[in-house]
Amino acid sequence: MPEDYYNILGVSREATDVEIKKAFYKKAHQYHPDKKNGDTEKFKKANEAYQVLSDKQKKSQYDQFGSTFDQAQAGGGGGNPFGGFGGAQGFNVNMEDFDLGDIFSSFFGGRQKTARQTSNAVPGNDISVDINIDFKDVYQGLEKELELYKKVKCSHCKGTSAEPGTKINTCSKCQGTGQVKRASQTMFGVFSRVSACPECQSQGKIPEQNCSQCSGQGRKQEYEKVEIEIPAGIKNGQTIEIRGRGEDGAKGGPSGNLYITVHLNPNKTFKREGDNLIYELPISFTQAALGDEVEIPTLDKKIVFKIPNGTQSHQKFEISSKGFPHLNGYGQGNLIIKTHLITPTKLSGKEKKLFYELTKLKGQATKPKESLFNKIFK
Ligand SMILES: [Zn+2]
Ligand SMILES: [Zn+2]
Predict the structure, then answer these.
(1) Of 88, 113, 138, which residue constitutes the final position of a domain?
(2) Is position 62 within any domain?
(3) Quick one: how far is CA 66 from the chain centroid?
(4) Residue 15 domain boundaries
């Protein structure tokens, strides 16, 4: 089980970015393996927690999906529509964040910059898509097919860049390694540098004839259908990550990810507050005073609601488990009925008299002035 990232850093779930950063620095100092009482495991854990909690998107995924998706990802993620948290398991601290000096550079080996690109692999771009869904979709979950216009592996050459049936030769400049070494003499001695082979674009292979469909790029811009699954209980504005379903990479580069941001369409009947479903129920004076039985819609089927006598305007009644399912799959929110007292307008003379009679009852909060009533009934 992954531990709670907030616990690891010792901060509350409401902690600000600054508090999270501070807490991480403190833990990092405390557990740094070079310290006398350092603890590599704890240091790594603190780093892992910080990688997620310092990244706005990863943090919101973690807050909403819990760590189970991360686990699923780690275990192969079979059928899981969500990606994990990229890099959460990895061990890479963003050095730009640090001004702490030697303590970190000693552990991470200092700031190292790759002097030369040694591969020309082209990673696929990420794709971001916005979709609008209805209250019912949030209630039931939704499976949907998206059609995306994106760069995909060329089906003609299967990404090899070579026209099918033609030969692919091993690059003679790099002997198929994709890299070339260059030695240079400096005042400090001879240095050899490795860089991407310019002849074969680091592929190690050169097609005798470029693919006629993709001009040797290995990818083409095409429409592709992608099945997506929106889980029940998804929040408005939430983004789902589907790993590897962005654009395909080329020349051995990895595919990008697909990010789907969900927008909830407004609903005429209901409002949403967290996982609760809010329904405003208009009631008459009579229903408020005497009580009644009415039918109430839900996102499923109608239910019968008993208005108790003596109900006030803006009173709330909670009906358990008729709201949206929780995103974690356990339980669901409630249906909250808010009463709204409708004051009658355009009363007939007879109706006015009846209301006037009511003012004579005991227990009325206020009594209007007799003189005003005399005017009304004149
Ligand atoms: Zn091709
Ligand atoms: Zn080469």
Answers:
(1) 113
(2) yes
(3) 11
(4) 1-113
